[in-house]
Design goal:
Layout (H helix, E strand, L loop, with lengths): L4 H14 L10 H10 L2 E7 L12 E10 L2 E9 L8 H15 L4 E7 L5 H6 L3 E11 L5 E10 L3
Parallel strand pairs: 3-4
Antiparallel strand pairs: 1-2, 2-3, 4-6, 5-6
């Protein structure tokens, strides 16, 4: 799925404020564009008002990016801008991602996150379970190492 330039701008505006810089998790514009050009990646946006069909002038509250291979999907990036958190938008956006995955015939979804990521509560609330740990996978800007937690969600029909 390729993205329109204004959608890339929307993704990047959220990316720049949503990911704490000390963890180096945010992607740059080139990485986002390259992923979407491949063809097995998709993205979704959510506006400040909870709509997914963003009209000109609607502020972007969050986005997801996913990549599918056969009947499995990986949630590559998921973010809600800090000023829009705690409004239910993350639950709504993640529900959209999961439902689209189901509709697209996916059997399961994977994701990976750093151990201390507060989004873990969101993923658990949607049924994701821990399936593995990558010890000391992430490195902070201060040089500290943090485990990556691998999770999956089995999509039953």
């Amino acid at each position: 799925m390729s993205a329109q330039t204004d959608d890339i701008d929307r993704i990047m505006s959220v990316m720049e404020c949503a990911f704490p810089p000390e963890y180096g998790e945010a992607w740059n514009r080139r990485q986002v564009i390259d992923a979407l050009i491949v063809g097995n990646c998709r993205y979704g946006l959510i506006g400040e008002d909870g709509t997914n069909d963003l009209q000109p002038g609607t502020k972007t509250a969050g986005f997801f990016m996913g990549r599918s291979i056969l009947d499995e999907e990986e949630l590559l990036l998921f973010a809600i801008a800090p000023q829009y958190r705690r409004r239910g938008l993350a639950h709504q956006l993640l529900s959209t991602f999961i439902e689209q995955s189901r509709t697209n015939g996916m059997a399961r979804i994977f994701l990976e996150m750093r151990r201390d990521n507060p989004a873990g509560y969101l993923y658990a609330a949607h049924g994701f379970t821990e399936i593995g740990v990558r010890p000391a996978y992430y490195r902070t800007s201060a040089g500290n190492r943090i485990d990556a937690i691998s999770q999956e969600l089995i999509l039953n029909d």
